[in-house]
Specification:
Helices cover 62% and strands 0% of the residues. The chain has helices spanning 3-20, 22-42, 51-65, 70-74, 80-95, 101-107, 117-122, 126-153, 166-170, 188-206, 220-237, 241-255, 261-279, 293-301, 307-314, 330-333, 345-369, 380-395, 409-420, 438-445, 448-457. The protein contains 21 helices and no strands. The longest helix has 28 residues, at 126-153. The chain is an all-alpha fold. The relative contact order is 0.13. Helix 2 runs parallel beside helix 8 (126-153). It has three domains: 1-67, no CATH class; 76-303 and 323-424, no CATH class; 427-458, no CATH class.
């Protein structure tokens, strides 16, 4: 099978499932994202780089052909202006003849392609959230199976050495000269980052219930192994920063609300199991390097340096879409002219979208940071965890690039952002937040029967 056929299969599968129910199509899209890395490594042909892109286009096409109901679309009102702005400005910049047209077209991938996932996240209801949680749990288990096989048999058995796998082959800084574990992803950092991004969905689904019965609770035997697979995957992969985020997330989970004794026992149990396996093998302890203050300081200073302000002065209107570090296929990189790359996501946005684009994006981040989550929202814990993960992602984006081009990490992050800033519904079907103008009129007309019909369609 060639990369072209895989693109066609990805497109058709996401399209067909999305036409039937866009939530099913979203789960299929996430599955393609989980396996994109290993497919790309084996199908290095041109279109092998765009398998997940084809799946995303199929998903979007399915939603457009089977447009969600008025109730779902109305939930997106707060985010629509931001989506228009975050897409519109890069599209304008792509029209400027700064770089080769093909470079600028592919550069849109890391700037606008997954922005619509914000609106998709707004439309997720309780049933869709549960479906995603179970999907992530199953995919995490499968991904950990690949990771464990690579851990025991060697990465080379599953990942060929070619032009698109150089990051994997060169990441041999684990104890004993071993390689970091990418599982089915493009690299180890994408694997650990995706596992971290899946935890709020799975844990949030578990925390919806007041009591947990490992035998009788439906789906528990899937969610817990999926959560454990995500935790172990973060350590077995090798990157350090996801472990630090995990520690903060654990603290938030335990102390941000009253957690009953059963949940505390589960957290202790999971922590004990993970700690046991990590302590048994030095290869899973690379995160301990975070204790080296000099190393951490040098790593931060490599991104937070005067070079950012030099770039601002030299390229106030950017250096062209795709010329700031967006993941370009190797066969397009030769078309770049005067490429300037800094290991800083905000510097990348500045280089590709110019100062206006950076200011627009920073304004969106500030808006997100001020969005409260209702205390009486049934999904409050899951949304709080998603908010926390997203805030950490934005806060640490200055020490690396890839926040807007990771597969499937970017789609997951924007999906979670849209979901966690969306107000819930009251039992009568009215929005929990107060709206003005047309939104208030809609809220007054949105009756409980209409809400129930919307749930029935879901």
């Amino acid at each position: 099978m060639s990369g072209t056929l895989l693109c066609i299969l990805a497109f058709l599968s996401c399209l067909s499932f999305s036409v039937a129910n866009w939530r099913y199509g979203l789960c299929v899209l996430m599955a393609w994202g989980y396996f994109f890395g290993i497919f790309k490594a084996h199908y290095v042909a041109t279109f092998g780089h765009f398998i997940f892109d084809a799946a995303t286009v199929g998903f979007y096409a399915g939603i457009v052909s089977n447009w969600p109901g008025l109730e779902e679309r109305q939930k997106c009102q707060n985010l629509k202006p931001w989506v228009v702005l975050l897409i519109g400005w890069p599209l304008f910049m792509a029209l400027l003849p700064i770089q080769h047209y093909l470079v600028q077209f592919v550069g849109l991938r890391g700037n606008v392609f997954w922005i619509p996932m914000l609106l998709v996240g707004c439309m997720i209801n309780a049933a869709g959230c549960s479906l995603l949680a179970y999907t992530f749990a199953v995919l995490n288990i499968v991904a950990f199976g690949f990771a464990f096989a690579e851990y025991t048999l060697g990465v080379e058995v599953f990942v060929p050495d070619n032009l698109v796998t150089q990051i994997v082959m060169n990441s041999n800084d684990i104890a004993g000269g071993n390689k970091r574990i990418p599982s089915t992803f493009t690299n180890a950092h994408s694997y650990a980052g995706t596992m971290m991004g899946s935890i709020p969905w799975i844990l949030g689904e578990l925390l919806k219930k007041q009591k947990i019965n490992l035998v009788r609770t439906s789906g528990t035997l899937v969610l817990f192994p999926g959560l454990l697979a995500a935790l172990l995957g973060i350590f077995i992969a090798g990157p350090r920063s996801p472990v630090a985020v995990l520690g903060l997330l654990t603290f938030l989970t335990v102390f941000s609300r009253r957690v009953n004794l059963g949940y505390v026992a589960l957290i202790v149990l999971l922590g004990t199991v993970v700690a046991y396996f990590v302590s048994q093998d030095e290869r899973m302890q690379r995160f301990t390097e975070l204790q080296d203050i000099d190393m951490v300081t040098a790593r931060l200073s490599g991104s937070m340096n005067i070079g950012f302000f030099e770039v601002l002065l030299d390229y106030p209107m950017g250096n062209g879409m795709g010329a700031g570090g967006t993941s370009l296929p190797y066969f397009i990189q030769q078309l770049l002219t005067s490429s300037v790359i800094m290991e800083n996501e905000y510097a990348r946005i500045l280089l590709e979208q110019g100062l206006p684009g950076l200011l627009f994006f920073m304004a969106f981040v500030a808006w997100f940071a001020t969005r409260p989550i209702q205390k009486d929202d049934p999904a409050r814990m899951g949304k709080t965890l998603l908010w926390f993960i997203t805030a950490i992602t934005f806060s640490t984006a200055f020490i690396g690039i890839g926040m807007m081009s990771s597969v499937p990490g970017t789609a997951m992050m924007l999906l979670g952002l849209g979901y966690c800033v969306t107000p819930a519904l009251t039992p009568t079907g009215l929005w929990r937040r107060d709206f003005t103008g047309g939104q208030a009129m809609f809220a007054a007309r949105f009756s409980a029967p209409a809400y129930q019909r919307g749930l029935a369609r879901a």
